[in-house]
Specification:
alpha/beta; Rossmann fold; 4 domains; 5-stranded parallel β-sheet; 20 helices
Amino acid sequence: MKRVWVLDRSEAAAGDLVDALPPLAYSVDVWSDADEFLRALNEERPDLVVLEHGIETVPAVDVLRAIKGAERRLPVVVVAERTSSQGAIESMREGAYDYLPRETLPGALEDAARRALSSGGGMIRTIGSPGPGDLTALGALVGKTPEMIEIHKLIGQVATTDAPVLVQGEPGTGRELFARAIHYNSQRRENPFVAVNCASIDEGALEAELFGSGGEAGAVGTSRVEHADTGTIFLDEIDAAGPSIQGRILSVLSNGSFDRPRGRAKVRADVRVVAATSASLVRLMKTGRFRVDLFYRLKVVSIFIPPLRERRPDIEFLAGHFLERAAREMQRDVEGMSPSVVDLLTSHTWPGNVRELEQTIQRAVALNRTGVLAPEDFEILREGGESWEGAGPPADLAASVRAEFARLADTGDPDVDDTIVSEVEHLLSVEALEHAGGNQVQAAKLLGISRNTLRKRLGRGR
């Protein structure tokens, strides 16, 4: 019979943990004193440890480190009363077999115990223990939905390796913050983290920016890849990289080196690569715009960040996090939000995802006069910011189209439809360019068109 040791705040608190472990399958011993537990661990060996994350005498992370330091391949399942991104990442980084919300008992624990014991156990750690990463500023990581907890666990696991990671998610979901969390919880955390948005730089300039050149500008240490040496380079919107750049990224991943553009010297590069995209790389591979071999090199570990509209239970939690931080940074005495605000926030579809939510909360905190956020602090949402979902065009746009149609019909224009479509496309291009801060590459990407098409549309204005 397998021996399971349970460490919780008290024997009474451990009741639901014990109940989740069938007595006919396991022999269960309960501990409430972490020091006694660790002393006993030096003399005996259970097959599995179930550890409550919130024990008070010794932090759960320290218990995990002590078990690992004893050089025992002993699986540990961490159960948390109050789940958190920090707790999940730290637990998995320090070698836990799994991290479970207490609310998922008994089924999740019984399943985790069965898997841990049938797999031969063992801690997941593959390299030495890094120091903890500071995640207090990484707001996009906050979340308690099952999807987010799984992502937190995956970050903790992958941070202990040098495996390439592909982060996929819509704009505004915080892709760079997830990349930073991986870096700051890895062995490379004391070394550089270099972020490059591939869509914000023209193709030729991007290649020189990443890899230098054969001339003076390409001297050792001037390229972004070289700046990231011994650290991590984050390549956002990797789909915007052209064939030549893709080839050099593949060389870095395969050989730890690259050929400098227009140069002869091969440059060594000890970097971890984390890439991100909001596009479908599979679709781009089918059309020949993204290398198949690079895709599979990048996708050793893949993290998909769900859009905020698909994890509505996290909205109130995130809003509270951003409110607390904004009030502190702005030195505003804002203590919370009314129930009607919570309803307003959770009913919004957040096309800009976590970034939009954070900026909305910041604006509300800055304008608030009562100390409690109320619906009047969110006029931008109350006035209807959700027409993007297909509820029909804004009234002023519809009115403008009708007026333009009447004007062109009166002049006898034979191509009324083409003229109106052309002017609407021009308006879309202007607005996209303004949204992208004047960057034509990013504006074209937002519209799903080529840069040349964007330029043509911009030149159509009256």
